[in-house]
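Final report, closing paragraph on structural work. Over the funding period we assembled a curated collection of sequence-structure pairs, and we close with a single example.
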Amino acid sequence: MSNETNKNKQAATPVLKGEVSYEEQVIKKIVGHALKTIDGLLSVDGGFFANLKEKLVNSESVTDGVNVEVGKKQVAVDLNIIVEYDKDIPKIADEMKAVIAKNVEKMTHLEVIEVNINVVDIQTKEEFEKNKVSLQDRLSNVAQSTGELASDTANKAKDAVVDGTENVKENLAKSRVE
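Its predicted structure, as stored:
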């Protein structure tokens, strides 16, 4: 096709009406993924029930602790966060606001008009990692230890049976020879 034919075809194509809207969950995911790059931010805190869920089962939902209000042209974001001890909290907050605005606007063309950040805790990395160990991890460790113990016990029992069988065979062999 020639360029002239393409131009005529494009000019004849009607402009379709319609709009794009976003579920809150989509914006929450964009925000959650964007925040993974922030140094000094240990966690976006999902509140009591999300934290309880995380203590019971390993789940790293990027949307926990992210609350959004989505309009046709604008977005507002509210976050509860845990910051690493001895870090510059206002600097972290500024970085968070910038990365959230950049990513949401780039992906959706929605304007981020507000980012409210509530610092709910500060922890060292060591404290944070220790607190992250879930019941699921603990049960897995217990199951692994129990499995190792059972395996060791089974091996000892097998060795005892083998030794006992050899002793019986030796005794039978002696009694036949005499």
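Confidence is low (pLDDT under 50) at residues 47-59. The first strand starts at residue 41 and ends at 44. We thank the funder for supporting this effort.
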